TrEMBL record:
It comes from Streptomonospora algeriensis. Transmembrane segments: none annotated. Gene3D superfamilies: AhpD-like. It holds the Pfam family CMD. This is Carboxymuconolactone decarboxylase family protein. Residues 55-137 form the Carboxymuconolactone decarboxylase-like domain.
Amino acid sequence: MRHGRIHWYSPDELAPDQRAIYDGVLAKYGSEPPFELFDEHGRLHGPFNAMLAAPGVGAALQRLSAAVGAHTSLPARVRELVILTVAAARDSAFEWSAHRRLAAGAGLTADEIAALSADAAPESFGPADLAAFDFARALLHDRDASDACHARTAEHFGEAGVVELITLVGYYDLLATLMRALRVPLPPE
């Protein structure tokens, strides 16, 4: 069975290196994932199936996913608003679908999520939210940030936070490209 342009892996056909990735993805999201993680046969949706197709890089991506999801100094609200900023800029339906609920759970309002879907800064954003949004947009549109944008971001998140934001934007930009190029379909809602 195909999942976009690649094979859709079922749990019973996984080699040991693929199984380690699969188990890591399930461990990250737990027994009640916040989005449709797998189908009724246990096949993973989204970028996770692609990780199984190339386990050498897939394992590294899975570890990076765990790191940007739980091992940064960034507040969950900031992390989710940045992910939605990437999803909107790259028109990544899977990222948008998976993270809009996470964003609401992290404290973003429906109006803020709607503004982000239009690639706009919500009027309700405070200085830290706006700094993260502007920094993410600069990276996405210019692949760089001005000295003023960097300084404003560092003022709110520190040096480590700036590096974490760059990594977060890069990771989700990579996932958006991966899913677009492989024509990964959205899971049913």
